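Bench notes, bay 3.
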Amino acid sequence: MSLINLVRSFLNPLKIDLVKYPNLDLRRREKLLSHHKITKILDVGANSGQYALQTFKLGYKGEIVSFEPVNSTFKNLEKKAIKNKNWKVFNYGLGDKEEELEINISENSYSSSLLDIMPSHLKSAPESKIVGKEVVVIKTLDAIFNNFVLDDEVVLLKLDVQGFEKNVLEGAIKSLKNIHGIQIEMSVEELYSKEMLYLEMTNYITSLGYNLYSLENGFYDENSGKLLQVDGVFFR
């Protein structure tokens, strides 16, 4: 018996298994970033830096610029990024206009949204319940893009803004011509009030000149197993 199988024989009764890292979704992301020679990632809706940390762990050598509007969450993000010279962080969100908006802060922080959370979301993830509100600064990507991106950089725009993705894209119409790829969280059913759902969002991004290259599994209902969100990865 191999060492791996021996370890599994001890872990399986505990319903624990050994799996290869990175998993299939992450291996595809790693190959896509490398194949498309991405040199800069704009990480919109960074939360505490999970996406950036994961991407650096995959071996990504370019720069990541992260945006997180909630003050307490941003402080955690800032602590994680401070020692990484390729990681810059900013305490505001992105949308379709320059304004200040009230954000709903969830107990788990990463479900916090500028939109109202739907009962079906709360049923699937009770930890996403709203525990507070905060006024946050919102800017458009078009207004700040040239502050962060040089002419020769190959850019991926990552969006994980809990239903506000269409708004961010509408505030980036001019910038998109200089953005090679988009990774975007998409809901299969309505989790946030009036959000654009998976099929419509896929068609919208395709209409902007991008093609779907990959889907990554996301949030699902742990009771039924129903998939509720996916990440779509698109490139020109």
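Next record in the batch:
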Amino acid sequence: MRTLIKLRSGSILTAAALAVSASLLTFAAPANAATDAAAAPAVPVAAASSMPPIPQVTLHRGPAQVEPAAVTPQRGAQQIRQAPLVANMTYHGGPVTHQPRVYLVFWGTQWQSNPNGAASYMYYYFQGLGQPADNWSPIMSQYTDATGQGPTFGVSALAGAVIDNSPVPFAATAAQIAAEAVAGANYFGSFGTDSQVFVLSPSGAHPAGFPTSGFCAYHSATTDALGRFVAFTNMPYVLDAGTACAANSVRSPLDGFSIIGGHEYAETITDVALNAWYDTNLAGEIGDKCQTGPFFAQTLPTGVFAQQMLWSNAANGCVQF
């Protein structure tokens, strides 16, 4: 699902527009989920055991420094699902990510305790993506932009992670989430279309109204005060929504973090500025068109993680690899 929203002038964000693509809230475990999990190799999910060495910093003193900005809906979700799912995506002229780099910003001191192993699960999931053993990400390589280049893989997608000890506002607005992404981009020095920042909110924070706003996560883009491009994902603590956001779809309650995190990772790569690859009739991106499953267990060098299929124009359908 794609929804476009525009920031009004005078906000802390200087971008002329903030474009958002949101994942639907409804997920259902596929009938073969138990079979897939049983058949998966016995590779441990390292995320469940120990906290990786993630530095802790304070990116800003408090949420009061992040001025909310009003948003005006430009296109709503009612326009989706008007055409057959077999419709291929089309190119709309914008850039794609060529060398994906993911930066994780765990927002709030709550992440220090690695709740339910979620912090390490996300860390090791993105550390495993992009490596030569990952045969899921290369599905995206077929989607090129005006330069004739598409995404390339072969090294870990994870380029950095940090715990931001700054206070987390309750029900952070879209503008506050974007501002946190900009703070993370400044910390990492990660700007441009090859970088994407995941803003991970802790349990109970309800960013942008989650879990009652009809999405599990969304990806978006903005600019900082110097006009530098920042692609980011608003990643709530999806376990707060349970099975509605893919918990226990394949292997464990943490399944939703990789299914939904991977969904937004792929959509950012192939539609980083919200003007590249999507299905015009369905308003569907590479993840939207396959988000209802079936899901499967993907083996990465860092463990086994639940995953969703991606849309392949070459196969005219949803594929795993």
